[in-house]
Amino acid sequence: MKVSVVVPAFNEARGLAASLGSIRRAMAALDERGWASELIVCDNNSTDRTAAIARDAGADVVFEPVNQISRARNAGAARATGDWLVFVDADSHPSRALFADMARVMAGGRALAGGSTIRLDLRDVVPSLAASGWNAISRALRWAAGSFIFCEAAAFRELGGFSLELYVAEEIDLFRRIKRLARRQGRGVVILRDHPLLTSGRKARLYTPREALLFTLKTILQRGRTLKSVAECYQWYDGRR
Question: Using CA atoms, how far apart are residues 140 and 99, in angstroms rounded to an integer?
Answer without folding.
Answer: 22
